[in-house]
Amino acid sequence: MAGWMVTGIWVLAAGVHLIPATAVISKMRVEALYDVQITSPELELLLRHRALLFAVVAALLLAAAARPELWLLAGALGLVSMLGYVVLAGQVGTEQAAVLRVSRVDVVVSLLLATALLAEYSGAISAPRGG
User: How is 2-15 classified by DSSP, letter by letter?
Assistant: First the structure.
């Protein structure tokens, strides 16, 4: 797998995490992003803090685009984040269109990220590993 393709996968995964990170801005952004009504300050805090954590994951994924030595850590964190959402969405069993759309995106980007990691650790990527 070419190094530029791997960089693109990292940037894509970071972008997927930056979208929900924008909810940190305000209660209105959380409600618009998730199509939910926030009924308490505690719920607002939890959802905005969640957005802050998405920003942290996005920053690490973006750093990994430029620093191959971060690939394993960033990839593991990104996969846990995205596949964790997919599993939890399945357990909750919601049929909300936004939840289903996010689940589909997370599955596709997880497959790309896993492919990049497997290619790297099988020696199929041309980019050198940092150290």
Answer: -HHHHHHHHHHHHH
One-letter amino acid at 65 equals A
What's the predicted TM-score (pTM) here?
0.84
Which of 2, 12, 131 is closest to 65 using CA atoms? 12
- The residue type of 121 is Y
Nearest to 27 by CA among 7, 41, 12: 41
What the block records as the tokens of 20 is 């929900």
Residue owning tokens 């759309």: 101
pLDDT > 50? residue 131: no
